[in-house]
Amino acid sequence: MSLAAPIALALGGLAVPIILLYMLRLRRREQLISSILFWQELARDRSANAPWQKLRRNIFLILQLLILAALVLALAQPSILSADPVDGHVFILLDASASMAANDGEGGKSRFQSAVEQVNQMAGQINGNDRVTLISVADSPVVLAAGTNDQQRLATVLAGAAPELTRADWPAAIALVNGLRQGADTSRIVILSDGGLPTNLPPLAGDVRFVPVGIASDNLGISVLGSRNQAEQSEVLVGVRNYGPNAQTALLSIFLDNQLHDSRRVELGAGEEKSLSWLIPPGVASVEAGVSPADSGLDYLPADDRAWTLLNNGEGASIKLVTDGNQFLERIFAILPNFTVTRVAAEEYAVAEDDARYDLTVYDGVPIPQNLPDGNVLIFDPQPPPTADEGNTALIVGEVFTNTLMTRMADDSRLTDVAWRDVNVAQARRVEGAGLIPLIDAEGGALLLAGEIDERRVAVFPFDLTASDLPLRVAFPVIMANITEWLSAGASITVAGQAEPGTVVALPQYPRADSIRVYLPGGETWTRSNLGEGGPIFFDQTDQTGQYAIEYIDDSGTLIQSGQFVINFFNPSESDISPSKVIRLGASEVLSEDEEIRGMRELWAIVLGVGLLLIALEWWLAYHRGLNRLLSKAR
Fold first, then answer.
1. Considering only CA atoms, which of 150, 146, 135 is closest in space to residue 204?
2. Which of 476, 492, 239 is nearest to 335 (CA)?
3. Predicted TM-score of the model (pTM)
4. β-strand 546-553 against 515-519: which pairing, if any?
5. How far apart are CA 404 and CA 411, in angstroms?
6. Residue 620 CA neighbour count, 13 Å, CB half
7. How confident is the model at residue 61 (pLDDT cuts 50, 70, 90)?
8. What is the mean pLDDT of residues 467-476?
9. pLDDT classification of 434: cutoffs 50, 70, 90
10. How far is CA 334 from the centre of its chain?
11. Please, what sign has the CA dihedral across residues 519, 521, 523, 524?
C-alpha cells in the first residue's frame, strides 16, 4: 500500500490530547446506599478528585481513537496496486520525439507504435468514472484528448499521431501537466518514453509512473554535411558517426544531382565519428550523402541516414554594373557573397541591345533610360536626361541640394544596424517617383528612397559616393548588404542546409509573382496565391527531410523564378537511441518496474466510510447509556 499524502499521518498526534482528557476526567458515579456510614468512604476527595487517574478500559476511548485513526488514514489517501491501469484521472505523456521512430521492436515495429499499443490497452479498460488526458510531447506538447473516457475518441487520435523529427520539450510538457492538474481531485501521471529526458526537469507531484520503450542502441547516422567553394570546383565534407555500443562498418555514398558518384567503406568503433571529403566537379547543383550498415550491421533509426546540401559553384545573383568607374561599388560587390558582377561602361550601355537578363542592374552616375530593364534596379547619383523626351517618366530627377544633414531615418528592416548620423554628403539631387518611399531624409530632400516601379524593386541613393564619406563608414557595408538582399530577393533562393525539421522558412517575395509553389520531398505540393506586397512568405511545412523546390508564377501562369532549399536532421541527442530505464524529475529518480502499466486503487473512501460507521456506533452507545440513566432515575 502507498500513501499519496503521507504528511497527513502527523494528525495522528491528536490521539495524545484525547487520552489525556480521559486521564484527567473526574469520575463520580451515583450510588444508592442504605446508611450514611458508607458515605465517608465514597466522598473522599483525595481519591475522587486526584488530577491523574489510572487509565481504565473505556469503550468510548477506544472508539474515538479508532475514529481518529480512520480519518487520518483517509486524509493520507492510501492506495494499492490494481490490475486496472486506469483509475481516476490519468495524464499520459506520450514521447513523440525523433528517437521514438527507431524500429527496434518486434517485426520492425517502431517504439512509438509500441507505446501507442500500450495506450490503446489502457483505453480499453476505462470505466465509467475514469478519465484520460493524452499529451503528445515533441517540439511542443499537444493535448490530443483532455479528460475523456471515450475509448473511440482515444483510438482515433492515436491513429493520427506520429513521431516528429525533433527533440521533445519536456519542461513545457511538465508545466502543461501541472497547469491542467490545478483543482483536480486525484490524478496520476504515466510517462511513455525511451528515456533521454533532461536531468534538470522540475518535479511532478503525486503518483508518477515511467513506462520505458525500446530495447536496442545500434544506429549509424550522418552527423554533418557541408561544402566550400574553391577556384573551379567545390569540396564537400561528410561526417558519419556510430551512435551504438558495438563497432560497425558503414557504407558511405555520395550522390551528385541524384546520381551515384562514389561509395566508401568506413570502419567505426563504438561511439566513433569520422569525416571524409570529396572534390565536386563544376556544374553540380546538389549533393546527397547516405549511410547504411555493411556486413550485416544494424541501424534502427532511418531519419539520420541521409543529408543534403546545395552548391552554387561561385554563382549567385547576376548583377550588371553600369558605371564609368567606381571602385567603392566594385569592391563592395566583390565582398558581398553570391554575386556575379558584369561591369559595363556608361557609353556602351543600351537596354535594347542587351538581350541578357540580370537579377539586378546598378546605375552609377548615368541618366536613367526610358525603359527600365527586367529585374530590380539600384541607382546611385542619377543624372537628368539629355532631353526631356529621353528621360524615364517614372523617375523624375530634380535639382541639386546641399543641406544634407539627416533629419529622419525610417524604422525599416532595410536600415537594420545602420548608423547614419556620422555620414557626410556634399550634395544630392531631389528624386521623385511613384511608389518610392524615403527611408533617410535630410533637410533638403531624401538621401535614400526605395519602393516598386512597374513591378520591380528600385532603390535610389541620389548622391555621388565619391562626394561623401559613406564608403569610409561602417554604415556602408551594412546598408549595402541590407539593400542588396532586398533587391536580390527571388534571384538566389536558398536556405542554409542546417535548417532542421519543423523550421519556419522565410521565402523571399518576387516582384512580379502572383503565386508560389513548393514541392515537398514526399511528392506533395504547397501552393499560395495572391501574394500581395511586402515581407517574406513564411513556409512551415518542413516536417520532412530532403530537397524542397520552389517556383514563382506570374498572373499569366508563366514561371518567372525558381529555387530550392534543404532540410536536414542533425540531432545527436535524438540519434543516440540508447533506451533508459530511469528518468529524473526534480530531485527524485523515477525507476521503471516493468513495461506493464498497472493502476492504483484508492482506498480513502473505504477508510472514511469505516470512520463514519464508528462515529455512528459511538453515538448509539452514548445515546443508550444516557437513556438507561434516565430510566433508572424515573424508577
1. 135
2. 476
3. 0.59
4. antiparallel
5. 19
6. 7
7. confident
8. 90
9. confident
10. 38
11. negative
